[in-house]
Amino acid sequence: MGTEPEKLWDGRFSESTDAFVEAFTASVTFDQILAAFDIEGSIAHATMLCEQNIISTEAFEQIKSGLLGILDEIRNGQFTWSVALEDVHMNIESALIDRVGEVAKVLHTARSRNDQVATDIRLYLRHAIDQILDQIQALAAVLVTLAEKETETIMPGFTHLQVAQPVVFGHHLMAWHEMIQRDADRLRDCRKRVNVLPLGAAALAGTSFPIERARTAELLGFDRVAENSLDAVSDRDFAIEFCHAASLLMMHLSRWSEELVLWSSPLVGFIELPDRFCTGSSIMPQKKNPDVPELVRGKAGRVYGSLMSLLTLMKSQPLAYNKDNQEDKEPLFDTVNTVRDCLRAFTDMLPHLEPDRDAMREAALKGFATATDLADYLVRKGIAFRDAHHIVGRLVSMAIQSGVDLSQLELSAMQSVSDKIDSDVFESLTLEGSVNARAHFGGTAPSSVRAAIARAKESH
Ligand code: ARG
Questions:
Q1: Cβ proximity of 113 and 7 under 8 Å
Q2: Cβ 114 under 6 angstroms from ligand 1
Q3: Dist. CA 441 → ligand 1 center (Å)
Q4: Stretch 192-198: mean pLDDT, rounded?
Q5: Would you say 394 and 129 are in contact if contact means Cβ atoms under 8 Å apart?
Q6: Where is average pLDDT lowest: 13-22, 110-119, 124-133, 260-269?
Q7: For the domain bounded by 16-109, which CATH number is listed?
Q8: What is the pTM for the complete model shown?
Q9: Which atom of ligand 1 sits closest to the CA of residue 87?
Q10: Any ligand 1 atom below 6 A from CB of 27
Q11: pLDDT at 13
Q12: Which of 9, 86, 113 to mutate to test the pocket of ligand 1 (most atoms within 8 A of CB)?
C-alpha cells in the first residue's frame, strides 16, 4: 500500500495527519471488500444526478466508464489501496479523479460518505443474505436426501441424554431441517429491512439538490427509500438483526455438531465421519478426531461475539453518523464469512456420513425405550395412565434385576404385576411397533417421516 496521496478533505487543515492517527482511523484494510458495491452505488447515484440535470451527460459517461475501469483493476488485483486515503470510498473516488480528471469531482454532489457507506453495507449484506439463503437450501436438500434413506432406521431418541423412546434416524435429520428452515425465514425477513435505500440522506440532513431518491432505489433494486435522513445514516439495526439470525443459525449448527461429535465417539458409535473431514493426533496413532463439527461448534462463539459487538457499538449512540460506526464492518464481514464456511462444511460433509444402523438399533434396544408403549398398552386395557406408569416402572425394575430387556420378560412374570397384560403385549414392546404407532402429523413413524420429507421437497 502507498501512503502519500492527497487527501480529499484537507482544505481546512494546516498540518498533515499524525501517522498513527492516519492508520488508526483508516478502514481501507477491511472495507475494500465493499468496492464492487461502492461502485454500483456510485454509478446509480451518478445516473440519477444526470437524469435530474444535476451533472452533465458527458460527466456521467466519463464517471461511469472510469468506475467500471477501476472495478476491473480491483478484480484483477492491480489496484493500489492507500491507507492515507482512509477508506474504500475515498480510494475509489481519488482513483477516479486520477483516471478521468477534474470531471470526476462532481460525483460526490448531493452525497456524503455517511449515506454512501450505509448504502454499500446494505448492498453487501443483501448479496450475502441471498448467498446464505442459497446455501441453506442446498443444505436442506442434503438433509432430505439423507433422511429419505433413513426412514426405517431405528435409533434411540433421547431426553436428558438418556434413552427415551425409539425414533427413526430420518426423523432426527428432519428435525435439523426444521431448524434451518426457520433460519431461512428469519433471514428473508431481515432482508426486507436491509433492502432500503439510505442514499440521499447525504451527511445527515438531506441535500439542497433536486435529487430523485426513488430512482436511485429502483436502479439499485431497493424496495424502499429510507424515510428519515438522520435515521438513514445512523441505522445499523439491519446488521444487528442479521447477526442475530446468524447467531441462531450457528447455535443450530453447534447443536448438530455436538450430536455428530457424540455419535462418532467410539463410546456411542452411531456414525462414522468420512476420513477426509477428520484429522489425526500427532501423538496418539489411533485417533480420528471430528475436527470439522468441533470447529463449527466453536465458531458459534465468534458469531455471538459479533452480535454483542454490534449491539454494544450502537448502544447510546446519539444521532446521526458517528465514526464509531466504522466498527460495524469487521464483525459483520466475519459473521458472513463464518456462517458461509460452516454451512459449506456441513453441506460437503453430511452426504458422506455413514450411519451404523445396527449400533443405533442396539442402543435403542438397551434402554427400555418402549416402556411408554407398554404404559400406553395398559391404558388401552382400561388402566389410568398414572397407574400404568407405576406398573411399568415395576416391570422395568424387574427387568433391570434380571438383566434383560422388557420384551424378554416372561409373560407370567409380567402378569404377576398386572393381570391386564396378555400375550399381545409383545407387539407393543418391539421397536417397530413403537415407531409405527406414532403415525400422526409430525410423528416418528416411517410413514409420517416420509410425508414430512414430501412436504419439505415441495417447499424447496
Ligand atoms: N469509513 C467510514 C465508515 O466506515 C465511512 C464514513 C465516514 N464518514 C465520516 N464522516 N467520517 O463508517
A1: no
A2: yes
A3: 53
A4: 98
A5: no
A6: 13-22
A7: 1.10.275.10
A8: 0.95
A9: 1
A10: yes
A11: 87
A12: 113
CA dihedral 353, 358, 360, 366 (to 10 degrees): -160
User: Exactly one of 56, 65, 281, 397 is catalytic; which is it?
Assistant: 281
Helices 169-194 & 446-459 angle (0-180, nearest 10): 20
Q: What's the CA-to-centroid distance between 192 and ligand 1, angstroms?
A: 24
Judged by average pLDDT, the poorest of 112-126, 242-256, 356-370 is 356-370
Give 363-446's CATH code, choosing from 1.10.10.10, 1.10.443.10, 1.20.1250.20, 1.10.40.30. 1.10.40.30
Evaluate if residue 1 carries a pLDDT over 80.
no
Is residue 137 predicted with pLDDT exceeding 90? yes
pLDDT for the residue numbered 279: 83
Domain boundaries defined on the chain: 16-109, 114-152+168-208+225-361, 363-446
The answer to whether 281 is a known catalytic residue is yes
160 has catalytic annotation: yes
Provide the grid cell at 414. 409380567
Residue 205 has pLDDT above 80, yes or no: yes
The closest-lying atom of ligand 1 relative to the alpha carbon of residue 31 is: 4
CATH topology of domain 114-152+168-208+225-361: Fumarase C; Chain A, domain 2 (1.20.200)
Output the CA 233–ligand 1 centroid distance in Å. 10
Q: How confident is the model over 26-53, as a mean pLDDT?
A: 98
- Of 59, 32, 51, the residue nearest 120 (C-alpha): 32
Which residue has its alpha carbon closest to ligand 1 atom 10? Answer: 114
Ligand 1 centroid, distance to 323 Cα (angstroms):
6
Fold match, 114-152+168-208+225-361 / 363-446: no
Please name which of 119, 89, 303, 121 lies closest in space to residue 202, comparing C-alpha atoms.
Answer: 119
